[in-house]
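Structure ticket #2291
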Amino acid sequence: MTEKEHAPKEERVEDIEVDLEEYARDGKKPPLARSYRFKVNETLCIWQKPTILGREILEQAGLTPPEQYSLREKVKGETPRRIELDEKVNLRKPGIEKFRAIRRDQTEGEHYE
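Resolution: structure written out below.
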């Protein structure tokens, strides 16, 4: 028997770029793909792996340093969920529509005199 016959069956990588918003709208789970397209606020980002860290999402959108931003994941039919900077996000999770980043303000909009 060859080595391939002993190896566990792996999912085939589709040679496509998956638009997460489109898959969420259609209610389909994104396949294992060449790349994943998603939005952070209005910035379109493309990532070549099925997982990404919160900080990498912000960096892809040009929001640096990432420590100055709060990140939320918007999943279809759910309330937005906070994503930590070192949290791994599975881009193949069904329903991910987009990400929202908000600049952190230590005063949360309050003015001190």
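Closing remark: The beta strands are 14-19, 33-40, 43-47, 51-53, 69-75, 81-83, 88-90, 96-103.
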